[in-house]
Amino acid sequence: MDEDFARGLSSFLERGGRRSFYMYHGTTLEAAKKINSHGFRRSSDGMLGPGVYVSRSVDKAKRYPLKPDPGERLAILKLKVRVGRVKKIDRQGHPLQKAWHQHGYDTAWVPPNCGMVPSGLEEDCVWDPNRIEVLDMWEVERETDDGSMCRIM
Length: 153
Description:
It comes from Ameiurus melas. The protein is an alpha+beta fold. Helices cover 13% and strands 32% of the residues.
């Protein structure tokens, strides 16, 4: 596991030698219910190639989906992710940016403030959806000027 990744994760859990971390995924409420019932499906592409995109930052998850339909209900899933072997991708054009899985990695990690993500927040891409367990689901509203946003289901 990348040392920076391990050092930066404060929500570390150790269970039987498997390293797991609390992470979050933002989506529509309808999609969150399907994920909760049937599990995640790997996306076909993205900044880090195919995989399931998650973050240790709930603030990052709050930003998704990027362009919801007006009136669409949104949710954040709290997850336990067994990260396995992690590859740090810290710049656009990194030689393994979309090929990390073919080189034996289970998760790709974009560290915070490395210039790859406009928000400056960290992001992770997990190849195997079976490494992800849904722990909780919150219905959310977009953040308002006064900072309020979350309504727990």
